[in-house]
Amino acid sequence: MKGIRRLAQHLNVSIGTVSRALNGKPDVNEETRKRVLAAAAELGYVPNQSGRALRKGSTGVIGLMMETSPETAANSDNFFLGLMDGVQGALARHNLDLVVLPCSTDENPASYVQRIVGRRLVDAMILTSTQRHDERLDFLSRSKIPFISLGRSGAGDSHPWIDLDFEGVANLGVDRLVAQSHSRIAVAVPPSDINLGFVFLEAYKAALQRHGIPFDPDLVIHAKSSEQGGYLAADQLLRMPNRPTALMLVYELMAIGVYRRLNEAKLQAGRDIAVIGFRESPQSRFLSPTLTCFRLSLQALGIAVAESLLATMPEFQALYPQGEVHMLWPLELVEGESDTGLHR
């Protein structure tokens, strides 16, 4: 109270008046409010947010949980930076702050979430890298902690989520390649239990079936979601006795590694092997031939994630009445030269 008492003495008003003026209460004269705010700026007064949080029983902080590893740090992926810009923009409307909760791959993600909740570090959480069976979702549901996941789990619609439309990407990619006379279409998916890989693979199988093309498990390449993963995926593809004529990727940076390996083999995307990337990234725009891939607004996605989370928080439900959200986020095809040209 020392800071606020000093302000009150400086202005010759009560501590209660200063407090109400700083908190925007309607029972304070507008001229008095301006005087208080001007004096606070002049004296460098900053409200004690910790004290406010204790009184309100909340922190005013939303946590975004991300899994980290040496590979993650080495990859120049801008996905989460763009997403966080949109999330924070929406949270700032309500004087809420976003903090990143980095969970090392050496630690159990469920145990990490339990520790964060036990310490009451955040009011709500955004989860990423959703697993096929994700213990974090079960724990947060039992704990009654507001949360949303960027991605589904195998459990279905049992919690709020927004996910990229991996089914739409797989269907459009297969349809586009089959229309160009490709039938041996390989896919590169993550080697982990992350659910997006399962979703993409199932949609790929269904798309092949629609076109009367039998599924060949040998054409499923498990590779890490990185430039190196793309390099190794292309290397595996080139070593196949009956080499596929097309490759679909489920992670944006893999395309860089694929191009590198094809170049070493004196092959070219679009001419010798058709390549369809995943999300358009700043790096992919510099690839030659131009990469056929998909586009989305990360800022708009971040805003949607934040607003959907706010809809689960009692304090904001009246402002965001959409209820529990289950949403597939569309991606727009960006036609390039990497999947056109000579075919076998």
Q: How do the helices and strands line up, and which of them pair or pack?
A:
Elements: H1 2-11, H2 15-22, H3 30-43, H4 49-56, E1 61-68, H5 70-74, H6 79-92, E2 97-104, H7 109-118, E3 124-127, H8 135-143, E4 147-150, E5 161-164, H9 166-179, E6 185-189, H10 195-210, E7 220-222, H11 227-238, E8 246-249, H12 254-264, E9 274-279, E10 292-295, H13 298-310, E11 326-329, E12 332-334
Parallel strand pairs: 1-2, 1-3, 3-4, 4-5, 5-11, 6-7, 6-8, 8-9, 9-10
Antiparallel strand pairs: 10-12
Helix pairs in contact: 1-2, 1-3, 6-13, 7-8, 9-10, 11-12
Structural write-up:
This protein is an alpha/beta fold. It has 3 domains: 2-47, 434 Repressor (Amino-terminal Domain) (Orthogonal Bundle), CATH 1.10.260; 61-164 and 298-329, Response regulator (Rossmann fold, 3-Layer(aba) Sandwich); 166-296, Response regulator (Rossmann fold), CATH 3.40.50. 42% of the residues lie in helices and 17% in strands. The chain has helices spanning 2-11, 15-22, 30-43, 49-56, 70-74, 79-92, 109-118, 135-143, 166-179, 195-210, 227-238, 254-264, 298-310; strands at 61-68, 97-104, 124-127, 147-150, 161-164, 185-189, 220-222, 246-249, 274-279, 292-295, 326-329, 332-334. The protein has a 6-stranded parallel sheet with strand order 2-1-3-4-5-11, with helices on both faces. It has a 6-stranded mixed sheet with strand order 7-6-8-9-10-12, with helices on both faces. Strand 3, helix 8 and strand 4 (147-150) form a beta-alpha-beta unit. The N and C termini lie far apart (77 Å). The model has no long low-confidence stretch (mean pLDDT 90).
